[in-house]
Specification:
alpha/beta, six-stranded mixed β-sheet
Length: 253
Amino acid sequence: MQINLPPDKKIYFASDFHLGAPDRESSSIRERKIVAWLEQVRHDAHSIYLLGDIFDFWFEYKQAIPKGFIRLQGKLAELRDEGLPIYFFTGNHDMWMFDYFEREMGIVIYREPQILIVNDLKLLIGHGDGLGPGDSFYKLLKWFFNSGICQWLFARIHPNLGIAIAKYWSRRSRIANHTRVEKFENEGSEFLLTYCRKLEEKEHYDFYVFGHRHLPLDLNVGERSRYINLGEWVHFNTYAVLDGQSVELKTFG
């Protein structure tokens, strides 16, 4: 994807809203904050990229979707009706996003990292789960969950039961059970940074922009390359903005 960004426009990135977690009340407060952020950036946004785990759980049955999140959906529909491009990347919590957002709002769905070229900058963007060394069990689990047979089997469960099961899983997730925020320990422990550095040895990117880590980070990959992690909206309310020359982490509110 290649973009010639006008000088008065910006590209926005956000991820890991985890709407639905850890409970309905706090999720509703967070949803209103996200809608306020979208209203703020709409005035100079060229496009918006949502890099996964927007929902703590999402599954699209043939005739049903999870209840709630109507304020976010309404705002996204409004922005799309105005012609603002919006892109979704599936994360490990909302990998079962199929074609609802594409059909209803014209929001493009991506399931793998994508190359984005903006003016003279080259970016690699995605959610970030399953990348880098280690975590073989999760990678196998992700392969199974993404398989057609797994999705077909889950679709056979009545939505009332299926979504109840998913909410139970959701209550056991790290974002729902952490009483304190993530902390940076050292560069060696950052698996996405390791992934970026190995990739940089083969192909140069000016910026690597990912979510999933739940910690806002801006780290050097090489002399001319940076890794940006978008953090999450349960504790940080962070996002990134590209002005055509650089990518900067910011905090809303």
